[in-house]
Design brief:
This protein is α+β, with helices and mostly antiparallel strands. Helices cover 38% and strands 16% of the residues. The protein is globular.
């Protein structure tokens, strides 16, 4: 029987969007049960058409062959394994890829003229979403502080920071970033540990990532958001998490391992970096029971 045109096109379609559709069942298996898989897959496809287009009109330019295409689409096609690993990480956490919950960022591998590849990064809104989803907090506050802001917080005296600045003040008027803080108010009314990070803390966190100063790094393009992400990431350690939700994340992590082991999965798909690996809790989690409502802030930063 002669091959139909639609079948021939489907066989030739090796685009990143087609890859998402091909593994949609695997994503549905990994996603938390409250997330609608069809909607998540459509949003993942749409994320590829966000951001900048490649501008390389010169035929001698390294990216000339991809002139006019979206950077994320090209990056995903260059390394499907890294792209799928990022999507699996986002799916495991139930976060929307290509949003402020979970960034999909291009990065150059192999120097200035190297190929673009996808790097997935959980954003501060993603960490805040996970805190709310656990059901233990009524509100979460994450804010950056600039040098001309009015800020006061005395640990052991003030319940929460006092932070003021002129309404609708421009960043130039508020000055450069000097700090960031985060805290959560529990359903019981108690306030969690207040996390404060200054420039030294942020510098230590950035040093862990050698590419933090690169052209495509979120530290370059969304600096304030990355400061807030660092504080939110510290705060999640001290916010109680429901046992049910921890089990759900562990289940999703185990499914990720199973999906990666499938023979049909493209080469290069590795274990997504996260809080749960092979169904076990990482060092961020205590040996048993819920997180305490308050705890001392650890010294230093952590990998981003």
């Amino acid at each position: 029987m002669p091959e139909t045109v639609s079948n021939a096109v489907a066989q030739r379609d090796t685009s990143p969007a087609a890859l998402i559709r091909k593994y949609s069942t695997d994503f549905a298996t990994v996603l938390p049960t409250h997330v609608k898989a069809e909607t998540w897959v459509r949003l993942a496809e749409g994320a590829l058409r966000k951001g900048k287009r490649i501008n390389a009109p010169n035929p001698k330019a390294p990216d000339h062959a991809n002139h006019g295409r979206f950077e994320l689409e090209v990056a995903a096609g260059n390394n499907p394994g890294a792209f799928l690993a990022a999507l699996l990480d986002a799916a495991r956490q139930g976060l929307t890829p290509g949003s402020e919950e979970y960034y999909l960022t291009p990065r150059r591998v192999g120097g200035r003229d190297g190929k673009l590849e996808i790097l997935g990064i959980t954003g501060y809104q993603g960490y805040v979403e996970l805190m709310y989803r656990a059901g233990a907090v009524s509100s979460v506050v994450v804010q950056v502080v600039r040098e001309n802001d009015e800020y006061r917080y005395q640990r052991g005296i003030d319940e929460v920071p006092m932070h003021r600045f002129k309404p609708f003040a421009r960043e130039a008027d508020r000055g450069k970033l000097i700090g960031v803080y985060a805290y959560a108010r529990m359903m019981s009314g108690a306030v969690s540990q207040v996390v404060e990070l200054n420039q030294d803390d942020i510098d230590r966190i950035k040093r862990v990532n050698p590419a933090s100063g690169g052209e495509y790094s979120p530290w370059t393009n969304w600096e304030a958001s990355m400061w807030m992400k660092s504080a939110a990431r510290q705060l999640r350690k001290w916010v109680p998490t429901s046992a049910e939700y921890r089990k759900e994340l562990a289940r999703a992590a185990a499914e990720v391992q199973r999906v990666i082991a499938e023979p049909s999965m493209p080469a290069g798909v590795d274990t997504p970096q996260g809080d749960f690996i092979e169904g076990d809790f990482s060092d961020d989690a205590p040996a048993g029971g819920d997180w305490p409502e308050t705890a001392p802030v650890p010294a230093g930063g952590e990998p981003q």
